[in-house]
């Protein structure tokens, strides 16, 4: 029997599996093998180290009615899901009050401060250092007033050590000559980097894990079996049970369903995101560009240009509504003249999202042999390596180097 069973092989599960191997554990990764449905495959690929401020924050409330009623807005709730998602949405909005946001920033900062160093160490060990691209990100705006309108967030980022530099229209033309349209200025996000392609990073790390003797069970987990305060087995889709000694639950947006088997009820939403990936975009973008007014990100990857983003509240495993991907592709054409979107591939996948934007990382409250690692929201790619190290500390019985109380599962 393996020492640790990791359920869910997205970036969080794979990084955790490698960190556990580093402790000397024999590790089995269990994944149903639908990598391309995982958020870790289709995300925008940013190492978003300065993303300490949650989406729900002071000033968001007046924007909500327009967002909710406009299918082209960056955040949309499918009308049929409005009632079932209402409790989550209310908690999300309630988390946006000033005092709570400061608490969230204090919780996210110690994680994100470590993200780059933890990835550099992991990627170097795996011989994949070239997969982290040493180019900062740019946030583009239609006007300086848009930046000033969110000075609350920018000040919080600077105060916590994440720096940015203003780019006027001339600077923007110099760094991103292909961008035009209504964009007049930007911010150079000095600490943010990007991956060459997140799906490739996840896959190469999984191969590294296997090359060091890790094992992979390709199966869908339908439940957790517990006796007293111990999880003793996982139940697979076919009904058979596989015994476990220790368990890490890292199944992204699907984790909430499994956690319920051991009495853990977490308000975990699956916030669907979309991308349009262009192998031959016919324009050159030099940096990952977050277009604030458009609500999407342009990331130049080793496999082409990815236009990604948008948040759709539509429950777990909904049918994709690729109009959302078309909308961001059309918006991208408006700021990138000459962009060729033909031959693009569309994708939808779920961000595992807690109402306060903070992940759940910690021991299960009533089951000592279980570590929970999910709910990383819009920064799960960024926090893969860091989460892995914290998971390894917890499984090894060591005190993690940061205060873990903000990420406890029972904080709601
Ligand atoms: C459009 C979009 C853009 C994003 N951009 C960024 C970004 O730029 N930077 C960033 O840091 N983050 C970004 N994110 C967020 C990030 O992608 C996620 O937070 C992160 O990938 C979550 O990783 P995970 O391993 O927890 O989950 P996932 O990647 O979703 O992996 C979960 C895994 O669990 C497996 N699984 C689930 N249920 C079961 C089961 N019952 N049995 C067996 N296996 C199971 C799945 O097959 C999957 O492989 C973005 C997300 C989206 C949607």
From TrEMBL:
Keywords: Oxidoreductase, Plasmid
Domain FAD dependent oxidoreductase, first and last residues per copy: 3-394
InterPro entries: FAD-dep_OxRdtase, FAD/NAD-bd_sf
Domain of life: Bacteria
KW Oxidoreductase (keyword) present: yes
Annotated Gene3D superfamilies: D-Amino Acid Oxidase, subunit A, domain 2 (3.30.9.10), FAD/NAD(P)-binding domain (3.50.50.60)
One GO MF term: oxidoreductase activity
GO cellular component, one term: cytoplasm
Name by which UniProt lists this protein: FAD-dependent oxidoreductase
Lineage of producing organism: Bacteria, Pseudomonadati, Pseudomonadota, Alphaproteobacteria, Hyphomicrobiales
């Amino acid at each position: 029997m393996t020492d640790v069973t990791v359920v869910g092989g997205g970036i969080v599960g794979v990084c955790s599996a490698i960190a556990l191997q580093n402790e000397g554990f024999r590790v089995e990764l269990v994944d149903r093998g639908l990598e391309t449905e995982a958020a870790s495959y289709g995300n925008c690929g940013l190492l978003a180290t300065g993303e300490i401020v949650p989406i729900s924050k002071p000033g968001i409330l007046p924007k909500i009615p327009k967002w909710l009623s406009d299918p082209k807005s960056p955040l949309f709730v499918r009308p049929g899901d409005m009632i079932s998602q209402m409790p989550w949405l209310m908690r999300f909005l309630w988390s946006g009050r000033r005092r709570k946001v400061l608490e969230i920033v204090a919780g996210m900062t110690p994680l994100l401060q470590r993200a780059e160093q933890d990835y550099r160490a992991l990627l170097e060990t795996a011989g994949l250092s070239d997969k982290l691209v040493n180019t900062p990100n740019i946030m583009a705006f239609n006007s300086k007033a848009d930046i000033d309108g969110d000075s609350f967030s920018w000040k919080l980022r600077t105060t916590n050590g994440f720096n940015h530099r203003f780019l006027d229209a001339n600077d923007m033309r110099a760094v991103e000559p292909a961008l035009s349209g209504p964009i007049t200025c930007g911010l150079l996000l000095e600490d943010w980097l990007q991956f060459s392609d997140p799906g490739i990073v996840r896959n190469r790390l999984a191969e590294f894990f296997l090359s060091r003797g890790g094992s992979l069970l390709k199966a869908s987990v339908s439940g957790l079996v517990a006796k007293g305060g111990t999880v003793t087995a996982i139940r697979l889709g076919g009904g058979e049970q596989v015994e476990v000694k220790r368990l890490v639950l890292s199944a992204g947006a699907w984790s909430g369903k499994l956690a319920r088997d051991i009495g853990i009820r977490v308000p975990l939403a699956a916030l669907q995101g979309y991308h349009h990936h262009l192998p031959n975009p016919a324009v050159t973008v030099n940096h990952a560009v977050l277009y604030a007014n458009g609500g999407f990100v342009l990331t130049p990857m080793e496999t082409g240009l990815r236009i990604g983003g948008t948040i759709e509240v539509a429950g777990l495993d909904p049918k994709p509504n690729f109009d959302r991907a078309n909308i961001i592709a059309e918006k991208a054409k408006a700021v990138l003249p000459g962009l060729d979107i033909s031959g693009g591939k569309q994708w939808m996948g779920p961000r595992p999202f807690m109402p306060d934007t903070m992940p759940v990382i910690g021991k299960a409250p009533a089951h000592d042999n279980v570590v929970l690692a999910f709910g990383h929201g819009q920064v799960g790619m960024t926090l893969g390596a860091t989460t892995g190290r914290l998971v390894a500390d917890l499984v090894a019985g060591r005190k993690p180097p940061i205060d873990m109380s903000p990420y406890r599962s029972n904080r709601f």
